[in-house]
Specification:
Low-confidence stretches: 155-172, 546-553
Strand order of the largest sheet: 1-2-3-4-5-6-7-8
CATH architecture of the domain at 375-489: Orthogonal Bundle
Shape: globular
CATH superfamily of the domain at 375-489: Conserved carboxylase domain
Distance between the termini: 85 Å
Number of strands: 19
Radius of gyration: 26 Å
Mean pLDDT: 88
CATH topology of the domain at 375-489: Cyclin A, domain 1
Largest sheet: 8 strands, parallel, barrel
Structural class: alpha/beta
Helix content: 40-55%
CATH class of the domain at 375-489: Mainly Alpha
Length: 630
């Protein structure tokens, strides 16, 4: 009888670093690892998409296309390369028309991408069907992902009333018990979405548990239903943040999953996916072959330690690293070895608590973080959590994290019970921070709203799993009616000439212009810096003609008039007024980006603009004055 094989999708270079280190891994660190990956023979390597195109431009000043090409050059013909795409949102935060999607998919496949994992943050099938068709037609493999999420926690039952209610006073007896809310996210919900995706042409289906909320008992019932309903391979993607990840993956393997997503040791566990090394131990005991060269994985593991050291500034667990795997595995005591056996037995018998206890004992021995109860209760993805920490640290506002995390379930319910995965995780997370700051200032919730939250509630991102309350929609958008996104309203971004850099155009070719279409704010900054570097290099290479005149900076006039201050720190994108303009209360005067979300800043007074105190692309702090009035 042939040994069963388990296929592995390695997430280390994309989701692993995104979940643990806020996507700050530099190209030089990836280049050092790629030759070692050639011998590992992973079925799929996820190296692109998700937050990578945004983050490598925004934080590292690198080209996402160069990253994809570097991976393709090393791995072509060995491992399939995959990326994560947000359906109609691609890698950005707004819906795009089909010609933008097609242009981007075509360029990605041309540059070496094989598998595009396509999901929609709302599980709205209409938002992914065109992507599935395009990827297949362009020669790629469409992997459609169903986003797993849970129904909101039920509120604690209120204390019994002292007086009888209306019903009992009228008819006698007791008031009827409150009706429990209907469950939305059932097994049938996820199976139905998966079947529809396969019908549309998906060649692979992923159960994408971005927040790590799939508990083992749920996988025990859901995975067999998915396997029975589908003819294409099933992949399971989860995270360890709330403490379910390792146990859920073991249960999925026992219940017949085809592919599991893992990370290599130093980039596994915590808010990332489980480490392949622990999955390998389980499979050794189960008699299942992990279809990877584990000797090559050991060489990658040794190099990854240095890569993690380079990411210390973004490492949420920099003082609590796991033990060295080889040493800990060699010295593994009998009770830990027995815990692996107990976990396998408990998973097969659906004894969830015993399974979790055994897996947590294993993880504790190897030094992985304990389950994060804050994340578990707020029901957020690990990447969202690490990015919130990194962004709040950048804004010097880390003290607001706990309040914002506690507000996430409320904001999520208000917005139609959306699953939390990019872009909805960023939208909801950023809005939760804004609400926390509103409460600190003593103003009503949602006084400050990011533009993408307004668009989400409006209906521009698609159909939410639960209808948004029309009264709430009117509060946020000014209109109670749902308004879908009109692709005809999309306007191609300008590609201006830059006189300060010799009159060259901002984007020099198709791939650069695609970045402008996808992420206009961050791509503009990235491309301006690139043009500036090219211009200065050319000037340095040219013969000197004259000594540049050094201008003395004029001393700035002190602020004497009333000011408009930034409610949250961020980066100035657009200034919409100029000195001398008359503005009214509620008028949009500036657009700024905070926590990757665009926000309109409205005037809080009637007045005449005296001075603009900031410039485009300036980084501003919370409460910093941005406009002075007469």
């Amino acid at each position: 009888m042939a040994t069963k094989k388990l296929l592995i999708r390695d997430l280390t270079l994309r989701d692993g670093q995104q979940s643990l280190f806020a996507t700050r891994m530099k190209q030089e660190n990836i280049d050092a690892l790629l030759p070692l990956y050639r011998d590992a023979h992973f079925y799929i390597m996820e190296v692109w998409g998700g937050a990578v195109p945004d983050s490598v431009m925004r934080y590292l000043g690198e080209s996402p296309w160069d990253r994809l090409r570097a991976c393709s050059k090393e791995m072509k013909g060995i491992s399939l390369l995959s990326a994560l795409s947000r359906g109609r949102n691609l890698f950005g935060y707004v819906p795009y028309p089909n010609y933008v999607l097609e242009g981007f998919y075509k360029e990605a496949i041309k540059n070496g991408l094989n598998v595009m994992r396509i999901f929609d943050a709302l599980n709205d099938i209409d938002n992914i069907k065109e992507s599935i068709r395009m990827i297949n037609e362009l020669g790629g493999t469409a992997d459609a992902a169903v986003c797993y999420t849970v129904d909101p926690k039920e509120e604690a039952a209120p204390a019994a009333p002292k007086k009888k209610g209306f019903f009992s006073r009228l008819f006698g007896g007791s008031d009827p018990a409150p009706v429990a809310p209907e469950k939305i996210f059932t097994d049938d919900y996820f199976v139905g979405k998966a079947k529809e995706m396969e019908r549309l042409g998906a060649k692979m289906i992923t159960l994408k548990d971005m927040a790590g909320l799939v508990n083992p008992a749920r996988i025990f019932s859901l995975m067999p239903k998915l396997k029975q309903a589908l003819t294409v391979p099933v992949d399971f993607h989860t995270h360890c943040t709330p403490g379910y990840g390792l146990a859920a993956v073991l249960t999925a393997i026992i219940k017949g999953v085809d592919i599991v997503d893992t990370n290599i040791w130093w980039f596994g566990g915590g808010s990332a996916a489980p480490a392949i090394e622990l999955v390998w131990i389980f499979c050794q005991k189960l008699g299942i072959e992990v279809d990877v060269n584990m000797e090559a994985v050991a060489k990658i593991r040794a190099k990854l330690k240095d890569a993690r050291k380079a990411l210390a500034a973004f490492d949420l667990n920099k003082d609590k690293w796991p033990k060295d795997f080889d040493e800990a595995y060699k010295a593994m005591p009998a009770d830990i070895d027995a815990a692996f056996d107990e976990a396998i037995k408990a998973a097969g018998e659906n004894r969830e608590q015993d399974l979790l206890d055994a897996c947590h004992k294993i993880e504790a021995y190897f030094g992985f973080p304990k389950p994060n109860d804050l994340v578990k209760n707020a029901e957020v993805p690990g990447g969202m959590y690490s990015n919130m920490v990194a962004n709040l640290r950048q804004l010097n506002a880390e003290d607001v994290l706990e309040e914002a995390m506690a507000l996430i379930p409320k904001v999520r319910r208000d917005a139609g019970l959306v699953p939390l995965v990019t872009p909805t995780s960023q939208i909801v997370g950023s809005q939760a921070v804004a609400v926390a700051l509103d409460r600190r200032k003593g103003v009503p919730d949602y006084t400050n709203k990011n533009n993408q939250f307004v668009a989400l509630v409006k209906g521009e991102y698609g159909k939410t799993p639960v209808a948004v309350d029309p009264a709430f929609r009117e509060q946020i958008t000014g209109n109670p009616a749902e308004t879908p996104y009109d692709v005809n309203s999309y306007r191609k971004p300008a590609n201006p000439e830059l006189p300060e850099f010799g009159g060259v155009q901002l984007a020099q070719n198709d791939e650069e212009y695609l970045l402008l279409e996808l992420l206009p704010a961050v791509a503009t900054g990235f491309l301006k810096n690139k043009r500036k570097a090219e211009y200065e290099a050319a000037k340095a290479a040219a013969p000197a003609t004259a000594t540049a005149e050094v201008k003395k900076e004029e001393p700035k006039e002190k602020i004497s008039g009333p000011t408009l201050n930034a409610p949250m720190g961020g980066t100035v994108i657009e200034i919409m007024v100029k000195p001398g303009d008359k503005v009214k209360v509620g008028q949009n005067v500036l657009v700024y980006e905070a926590m990757k979300m665009e926000n309109d800043l409205q005037s809080d007074k009637d007045g005449v603009v005296k001075r603009i105190l900031v410039n485009d692309n300036d980084v501003i702090a919370t409460d910093q004055p941005v406009i002075e009035f007469e």
